[in-house]
């Protein structure tokens, strides 16, 4: 038995919106055998644009029962049946959420008439309920009302059952099918052809634009995990509705996938990615010339389009670095903003210090230049050589003078002992501190995979 459900709501996600009307058609696989319909008081205002679409006003639902008063009838009517709807995850998320609030735990198999329509009746110009019904000659005198849409969906479902010569409905209901959990507009074949490999995957909208980029140790498993559960939140429901296609890039290792994800998010700026869009280390070491001509070092927050000598994870890390440079090269703590009071300079030069104007500009600036050069020389140049996408290649990431250069794949037999030669086989990419840090952390954990260049 099937419970064909349609609802009208105050908004697009269950956790912050109410149901204003629900209609259920019980279908025995041949015809509708029972019907249920009621207005519902959502106990909140119905937005004007929703009323304009559905015709349901605040006055109409004022005397209607709240959902908790009809929850028992709804639960017992659909319990043990297969939940069917047009874009089923939307209706199911609302009904399940509000039943749970009333104390009922709904756990049903689902069928989506959008997905079934694409499989059983391929090639139609649109699979929205209104256009699909017009194309198939299914009447609906009460569009955007629960009873009218439920009856139209029931008639559509009967047609789909009668046209299902290849057993798509039976296949979708198999326990391991996962068909019913997929977004309505995402073809199952897109998910079936995903590899069990590390890599980066892309969700695309109806126009092919990338709306989300993710990384994975196992692409197929990670993509499938996006569709499990019934999170009723606005972002998730909108996200699922907008997924029309998934593509991917296989990577040799999870590290390559981490780096590529960060690069692609910066390049594509996908709508539903939040993290990594603005990640930058907060503090940096800068050098500038003051009015007297002395070169001064300072730790400050990162500024766009500025020349950075060194990046720091925190202000404390920056001060620790400056203190080491002051001690090693005899720099002035006042000119480095470490000593900020008016007391005599605590630097090695004391009263002969540059801050007192005694040490010449040329002599002091030479010490600062020596410190900067030593700092840059200490930045390593190395490659991380690791597993490739196939058995006859290796993945390779190059860090040059402490900065991420790029990555790619090289032959299993390639002798990577020359930086310039190695660059010919790698693709340069824009780097950032996030990429630099994850590559550096990986190198620390797996020093045997490093190729260090002098």
From TrEMBL:
GO cellular component, one term: cytosol
Record InterPro entries: DnaQ, GIY-YIG_endonuc, GIY-YIG_endonuc_sf, GIY-YIG_UvrC_Cho, Ribonucl_H, RNaseH-like_sf, RNaseH_sf
Record-linked Gene3D superfamilies: GIY-YIG endonuclease, Ribonuclease H-like superfamily/Ribonuclease H
GO process terms (BP): DNA replication proofreading; nucleotide-excision repair
Molecular-function GO term, any one: DNA binding
Domain GIY-YIG: 196-274
Pfam families reported in the protein's UniProt record: GIY-YIG, RNase_T
Known role: DNA polymerase III is a complex, multichain enzyme responsible for most of the replicative synthesis in bacteria. The epsilon subunit contain the editing function and is a proofreading 3'-5' exonuclease.
Subunit structure: DNA polymerase III contains a core (composed of alpha, epsilon and theta chains) that associates with a tau subunit. This core dimerizes to form the POLIII' complex. PolIII' associates with the gamma complex (composed of gamma, delta, delta', psi and chi chains) and with the beta chain to form the complete DNA polymerase III complex.
Protein name: DNA polymerase III subunit epsilon
Source organism (scientific name): Mucilaginibacter ginsenosidivorax
């Amino acid at each position: 038995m099937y419970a064909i459900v349609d609802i009208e709501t105050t908004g697009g996600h269950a956790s912050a919106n109410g149901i204003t009307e629900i209609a259920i058609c019980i279908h025995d696989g041949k015809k509708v055998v029972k019907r249920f319909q009621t207005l519902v008081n959502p106990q909140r205002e119905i937005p004007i644009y929703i009323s304009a679409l559905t015709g349901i006003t605040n006055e109409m639902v004022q005397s209607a029962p709240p959902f908790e008063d009809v929850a028992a009838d709804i639960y017992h009517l659909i319990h043990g049946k297969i939940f069917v709807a047009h874009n089923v995850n939307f209706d199911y998320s609302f009904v399940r959420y509000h039943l749970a609030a009333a104390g009922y735990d709904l756990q049903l198999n689902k069928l989506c008439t959008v997905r079934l329509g694409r499989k059983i009746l391929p090639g139609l110009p649109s699979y929205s309920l209104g256009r699909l019904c017009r194309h198939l000659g299914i009447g609906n005198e009460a569009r955007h009302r629960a009873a009218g849409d439920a009856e139209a969906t029931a008639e559509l479902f009967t047609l789909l059952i009668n046209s299902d010569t290849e057993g798509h409905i039976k296949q979708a209901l198999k326990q391991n099918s996962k068909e019913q959990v997929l977004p309505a507009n995402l073809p199952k074949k897109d998910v079936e052809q995903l590899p069990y490999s590390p890599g980066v995957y892309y969700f695309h909208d109806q126009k092919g634009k990338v709306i989300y980029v993710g990384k994975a140790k196992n692409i197929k498993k990670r993509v499938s995990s996006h569709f499990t559960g019934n999170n009723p939140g606005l972002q998730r429901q909108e996200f699922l509705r907008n997924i029309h296609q998934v593509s991917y890039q296989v990577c040799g290792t999870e590290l390559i996938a981490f780096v590529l994800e960060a690069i692609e998010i910066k390049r594509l700026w996908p709508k539903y990615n939040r993290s990594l869009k603005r990640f930058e280390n907060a503090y940096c070491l800068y050098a500038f010339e003051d009015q007297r001509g002395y070169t001064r070092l300072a730790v400050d927050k990162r500024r766009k389009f500025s020349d950075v000598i060194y990046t720091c994870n925190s202000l404390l890390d920056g001060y620790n670095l400056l203190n080491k440079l002051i001690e090693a090269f005899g720099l002035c703590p006042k000119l480095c903003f470490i000593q900020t009071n008016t007391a005599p300079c605590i630097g090695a030069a004391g009263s002969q210090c540059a801050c007192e104007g005694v040490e010449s500009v040329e002599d002091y600036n030479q010490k600062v230049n020596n410190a900067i050069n030593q700092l840059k020389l200490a930045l390593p140049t190395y490659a991380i050589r690791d597993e490739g996408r196939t058995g006859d290649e290796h993945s390779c990431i190059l860090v040059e003078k402490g900065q991420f250069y790029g990555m790619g794949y090289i032959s299993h037999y390639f002798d990577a002992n020359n930086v310039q030669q190695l660059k010919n086989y790698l693709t340069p990419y824009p780097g950032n501190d996030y990429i630099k840090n994850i590559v550096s952390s990986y190198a620390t954990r797996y020093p045997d995979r490093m190729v260090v260049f002098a």
